[in-house]
UniProtKB/TrEMBL annotation:
<dbReference type="GO" id="GO:0016887">
    <property type="term" value="F:ATP hydrolysis activity"/>
</dbReference>
<dbReference type="GO" id="GO:0005524">
    <property type="term" value="F:ATP binding"/>
</dbReference>
<dbReference type="InterPro" id="IPR005670">
    <property type="entry name" value="PstB-like"/>
</dbReference>
<keyword id="KW-1278">Translocase</keyword>
<dbReference type="InterPro" id="IPR003439">
    <property type="entry name" value="ABC_transporter-like_ATP-bd"/>
</dbReference>
<keyword id="KW-0547">Nucleotide-binding</keyword>
<dbReference type="InterPro" id="IPR027417">
    <property type="entry name" value="P-loop_NTPase"/>
</dbReference>
<dbReference type="InterPro" id="IPR017871">
    <property type="entry name" value="ABC_transporter-like_CS"/>
</dbReference>
<protein>
    <submittedName>
        <fullName>Phosphate ABC transporter ATP-binding protein (PhoT family)</fullName>
    </submittedName>
</protein>
<keyword id="KW-0813">Transport</keyword>
<dbReference type="GO" id="GO:0005315">
    <property type="term" value="F:phosphate transmembrane transporter activity"/>
</dbReference>
<keyword id="KW-1003">Cell membrane</keyword>
<dbReference type="GO" id="GO:0016020">
    <property type="term" value="C:membrane"/>
</dbReference>
<keyword id="KW-0592">Phosphate transport</keyword>
<dbReference type="InterPro" id="IPR003593">
    <property type="entry name" value="AAA+_ATPase"/>
</dbReference>
<keyword id="KW-0067">ATP-binding</keyword>
<dbReference type="GO" id="GO:0035435">
    <property type="term" value="P:phosphate ion transmembrane transport"/>
</dbReference>
């Protein structure tokens, strides 16, 4: 079939396409193998086999209810109490979906930021140091250094450095979300999971969060759920498109947005949701 027929690839178009990440060229920070999530009898996610490259940003996109948050939350065992998660989640050679894994310890390596900023009703300083102290870091100089470094990494330091003992609840929504990101990076995780971190924010705060994530990817592997396709296109290296509890297409972001291989992805990125 010729490229000019308007029906290019129609006869060979796959129903799903998951790129094969070459592990000799791309370091894989986290991978899932045959992940399935059930809420009671309802199979909300299936066939999720994805590899996430280290120091890259991967976006998870798809319509409401397609399973993006279910997938993301499974990656640091947030679904344990509400769902049955089957399959493997491999991190540094360990299946972190195994019951034997210490979830508390694992979350030091795989941090999570939620949609709504959720700072503690404590000072900015204490928001950052709280979990560190719980993990046994008591040295004041070490704590002060972590506060400064993580606030700088989250691009909030300049705005709050003279007000570290002010209540975090007095910050704007966008500042609170950057504080929550600082709180997560203060634990020095490898992987940062973010569930629509900018959806409740204005465009300027959103842009600051995006800049922050682009800075952070030098040190962290980032996986982000977003409904904002421009955002996915702007910040992510890879994109996974979810539909009805399945990953339909996973590829480099520029390919997903310019030359997707699956018709459903073409329809979604073009705004034809019918
Ligand atoms: N705690 C829960 N209990 C029961 N069913 C759930 C629960 N959380 C999600 N589901 C169901 O699982 C499916 C996938 O939901 P999920 O929240 O993962 O989708 P999503 O793509 O993240 O949607 P959104 O973009 O609206 O957040 C939906 O059918 C949803 O109703």
């Amino acid at each position: 079939m010729s490229e000019n027929s308007g029906l290019v690839f129609d006869d060979v178009m796959p129903e799903r396409y998951i790129m094969n990440m070459d592990e000799s060229k791309h370091e894989v920070a986290l991978s899932t193998n045959d992940l399935k999530v059930y809420y009671g009898d309802n199979l909300a996610l299936q066939d999720a086999d994805l590899k996430f490259e280290r120091f890259k940003i991967t976006s998870l996109i798809g319509a409401s209810g397609s399973g993006k948050s279910t997938f993301l939350r499974s990656l640091n065992r947030m679904n344990d109490d509400v769902a049955t998660v089957k399959g493997n989640i491999m991190y540094r050679g360990i299946d972190i979906n195994s019951k034997a894994v210490d979830v508390y310890e694992m979350r030091k390596h795989i941090g999570m930021v939620f949609q709504r900023p959720n700072p503690f009703a404590k000072s900015i300083y204490e928001n950052i140091t709280f979990a560190l102290k719980q993990h046994g870091i008591k040295n004041k100089a070490v704590l002060a250094e972590r506060v400064e470094t993580s606030l700088k990494q989250a691009a909030l330091w300049d705005e709050v450095k003279d007000d570290l003992y002010k209540s975090a609840l007095e910050l704007s929504g966008g500042q609170q979300q950057r504080l929550v990101i600082a709180r997560a990076v203060a634990m020095q995780p490898d992987i940062l999971l973010l569930d629509e971190p900018a959806s409740a924010l204005d465009p300027i705060s959103t842009s600051k969060i995006e800049d922050t994530l682009l800075e952070l990817k030098d040190k962290y592997t980032i996986i982000i759920v977003t409904h904002n396709m421009q955002q996915a296109a702007r910040i992510s290296d890879y994109t996974a498109f979810f539909h009805l509890g399945q990953v339909i297409e996973y590829d480099q972001t520029r390919k997903i947005f310019t030359r997707p291989k699956v018709q459903r992805t073409i329809d979604y990125v073009n705004g034809n949701f019918g």
